[in-house]
Amino acid sequence: MSLPTIKDYSLLEKIGSGSYATVYKAFKKGGSKDVVAIKSMDKSTLSKSAIENIITEIRLLKILKHEHIVEMKDFFWDDRYIYIVMEYCDGGDLSKFIKRKHRLPENICRKFLQQLALALKFLRSHNVCHMDLKPQNLLLMNTPKLTLKVGDFGFAQYLANYEHKFAMRGSPLYMAPEILLDHKYDARVDLWSVGIIMYECLFGKAPYSSSSFQELAEKIKDRRPIELPKNSYITPECKDLITSLLKHNPSERITFDEFFAHEFLDLVHAPTKDNYDKAVVLVHKAVQLDREKNQKEAFHHYCDALRYFIPLVTNETDPQRKEALRLRVNDYIKRAEELKSVYADDYVDNTDKTKTVPEVQGALAKKESFDRNSYRKLCSLSKSTAGMCDALEIGEIAEQYLSEGNYEVALEKFKSCLEMLVPLLAKEPPGHRRDLLHKQVQLWMKEGESTKALLGTKNLEPTGTQTTSYLTDHQCTLQ
Ligand SMILES: Nc1ncnc2c1ncn2[C@@H]1O[C@H](COP(=O)(O)OP(=O)(O)OP(=O)(O)O)[C@@H](O)[C@H]1O
């Protein structure tokens, strides 16, 4: 298919098209050759309201500059088309990302929600309501690292917190029920859509997925309570957030301030550039206090810094930078542990500050990495053997808990999956599947052991009341 001509730009390919636009990948002729996305809209096919939407989008994108909002670089028009030149997002959109992965682990879901929440916080500070939040409008950048950006402000409008509007806007599957039922709504409609997006991330499809609009409208009209799929496990914080977002009655729904402060998001410690700067300031202060022999204050400063550093380590995708940061953070942990043991006897402050040290250790101790490719291969080979698939899935869940620092549950899950896998391995005849299974069992035993050791270090804490079931019955040797 031939591509149209756009003055000053070389078009590379068509990326996609929506209800009133086509989007192309392009670069500016004679310029830096930076790739951009150009949204082109045929003026002859546009209704009055579509033109209004475009004007809104242009006006908003021009002033809304934020790390998690797709940047508008330019806009212009000719006889037939209006063009918006935007930064190009090389990772597709969130909808395609979820489809490829089927569903997202909680830690990835948290990362995307944090970034979405940062964008929404910024939008709220400008009294802007997006009105059409859905995975297709959340674009992803792969480079330099996986980043989410809110795009498509075609339906957005200025709405102060409790100002009401009456027109129908948005996509039905993600649309807050009050828009459809009462035709009256305020900015909280965006929070409902966030809840639906979160549901789709965690469980692979939107809760009201239907084969026709009629069916969808029925489900919304019935105000059918949204149930989380059975046999799926999410942490209590995650469950609390999703159920608070998905309240049909907007006055029962979580408020923006509560959303931004929610413990699942832990936005305060999100891995942002600002938080990196904060962590560095805190750690410098810790070193200074340490030098001045103010051990207690130094310890607290190390812990505060580590709370910012851990999401930064987890989030870093460049292997070299990750390793450098990991080593640096490891030193701070060691020093914090030493300081803690010096004054542990007098230590009475039982706040969650003390959790930081083992939490960070866990994330860093996980050097032996979970090889997703061989895990997948093993899963595809395991279908013929009863119980193997289920056991592997439990192991994957354990991985997820481990990466989130939920060691107690991770250990329980490692224990259950090994209980099933070790006997299966004993019976497995030699061959490729046995090799893969052997490798997987070995890795999970190691991870189970280090999780166990890590839980042991929690006894360093003055409270020392951790109840843990250990992996003792799995100290078996592998043949
Ligand atoms: N800045 C961008 N970088 C990369 N891809 C983009 C960019 N903007 C849009 N796209 C892609 O182009 C496609 C069309 O986008 P567009 O905003 O026109 O429509 P839509 O959001 O899919 O549909 P609708 O406007 O009907 O809601 C989408 O699939 C999106 O993934």
UniProtKB/TrEMBL annotation:
Belongs to the protein kinase superfamily. This is Serine/threonine-protein kinase ULK3. Its EC number is 2.7.11.1. CDD domains: STKc_ULK3 (cd14121). GO terms for biological process: autophagosome assembly; autophagy of mitochondrion; piecemeal microautophagy of the nucleus; regulation of autophagy; response to starvation; reticulophagy. ATP binds at K39. Keywords: ATP-binding, Autophagy, Cytoplasm, Kinase, Nucleotide-binding, Repeat, Serine/threonine-protein kinase, Transferase. Pfam families: MIT (PF04212), Pkinase (PF00069). It catalyses: L-threonyl-[protein] + ATP = O-phospho-L-threonyl-[protein] + ADP + H(+); L-seryl-[protein] + ATP = O-phospho-L-seryl-[protein] + ADP + H(+). GO terms for molecular function: ATP binding; protein serine/threonine kinase activity. GO terms for cellular component: autophagosome; cytosol; phagophore assembly site membrane.
